[in-house]
Amino acid sequence: MKVLCLGGAGKISRESVHDLVLFSDFEQITIGDFNEKAGREVVAWLNEPRVDFRKIDINDKAATVSIMCGYDIVMDGTTISLNDRSTACIAEAGVHGINLNGFGEEYKYDSIFKSFGKVHVPGFGMTPGVTDMMARYAIDRLDTVDTVRVSHGAFRPIAFSASITETTTTEYDPDFPNRVVYEKGMFVQVPPFARPLDVELPEPYGTLTQYIIPHSETKTVVAYLDAVGKPANLVEVRGTWPLKNMQLVRALHDWGILRNDKIHIAGVTVGIMDAVSAYLMQYPVGQTTELYGYALHVDVTGTKDGQKLRHILTHTHPSSDGSVQGWENLRAYTRCVGIPMGIATRFIAEGKVKGSGVIMPEFAFDPKEIFQELEKRQIFVHEKVERI
User: Fold this and answer.
1) How far apart, in Å, are the Cα atoms of 259 and each of 57, 139, 159, 175?
2) I want to staple 224 with a disulfide (CB 3.0 to 4.6 A). Which of 156, 174, 362, 372 is the partner?
3) What's the pLDDT tens digit per position in 58-71?
4) What is the mean pLDDT of residues 80-95?
């Protein structure tokens, strides 16, 4: 089988490709990216005969679809703003697909994927992705569910790539329509920095204040709960970044800069947030941080055999301090995000996802199988069950 790794030159997606090289038997693994220089650097880094490069401009739909038709599956690591266009191309090409973000644009192509008998899984990195698996794992072990709280800490520089900068500004955009919680049978829109909650993450990250973010788990977890007949009273998704990042984003929000209003400088019109993002992308202040890595925390309450229980699932990975080869500094973050998409891509290609169409992560994969694969890569999921 052949896989096209769209956006595979990015710092996160190249880790997904790296995982395919190490653990899959794809006969051809193609880096498809507009940035030819970065793409060929990744090919050289991987040093694997199965890996090659093709330049792709996702804005040229006809050419992109034509290329995709030559593959069995597209592993899509493009940015949030491109996922509508990329999914449209994957659907039209009539191949399997998966992406990292899962912000919801994918579902309108469900009927096209079904017409080809193909699968597309939206949003399978750490969060969404592994968090969906953690939530499902706990839900499956309860008779009834009361609350589901998904939380994460992403410890990385605020602007080490364009896609990460875009994610930051999107999640705290004051006008973003999908920042919701599920409460008492309804999805409720909330503003940025809503519902602060102190969440205890595994060491070395510690307890940090987290806020509601517009991630897909809110809706996909609710869909799974409904499907298994365990409707919850509350589903919330929170997140945080390093403290300095959060302080900056809060200031940008409070000063209205996240609105990206147009300003005029020396005869040039630019968005104020675009200018800030460009600064962060070009200077060390946006490219480094003190602590690197990822930390997940999923808290599910409900009942089992009449007893009220709390399932808390967390995850850990090798330290970023250089003591474990391949996990140094930024790679402790990028590997956590990229590896799950590589695992899921292989599972789809192997036919482990039943059905067709756009399938939410909770319905696509067996959490135990995902956890077992993560463990092979030194990423561990931990569970604690408490009586309440």
Assistant:
1) 28, 38, 18, 8
2) 362
3) 999 999 999 999 99
4) 96
**Distance between CA 8 and CA 349 in Å, rounded?**
18
0.70 exceeded by pTM: yes
The residue written with tokens 């009273």 in the block is 233
- The CA distance from 1 to 4, in Å, is 10
* Average of per-residue pLDDT across 265-294: 93
Domain termination site, one of 121, 151, 169: 121
Q: How far is CA 312 from each of CA 130, 151, 183, rounded to the nearest angstrom?
A: 14, 11, 20
Distance from C-alpha of 261 to C-alpha of 281, rounded to nearest angstrom: 19
Assign residue 250 the CATH number of its domain. Answer: 3.30.360.10
| Predicted confidence band of residue 175 (pLDDT cuts 50, 70, 90) | confident
**Residue ending a domain, choose from 87, 121, 155:** 121
Q: Is the dihedral of CA 94, 362, 75, 274 positive or negative?
A: positive
Residue 161 has pLDDT above 90, yes or no: no
* pLDDT for 235: 98
* Pair type for strands 73-76 and 96-99: parallel
Q: Across the chain, what does the average pLDDT equal? A: 95
Cα separation, 10 vs 97, in Å, equals 18
Residue whose tokens read 């996802």: 353
Q: Which two tokens stand for residue 131?
A: 């968090």
User: 249: domain range?
Assistant: 130-333+378-387
Q: Across residues 309-325, what is the average pLDDT?
A: 97
CA distance 340 to 371: 10
Give 159's pLDDT tier (boundaries 50, 70, 90). Answer: confident
Please write down the HEC assignment for all residues of 331-380.
HHHHHHHHHHHHHHHHHHHCCCCCCCEECCHHHHCCHHHHHHHHHHCCCE
Q: What is the CATH number of the domain that holds 98?
A: 3.40.50.720
Q: 3-class SS at 311?
A: strand
Task: Measure Cα distances from 7 to 52, 89, 121, 144 in Å.
Answer: 13, 14, 17, 41
DSSP-assigned letter for residue 50: T
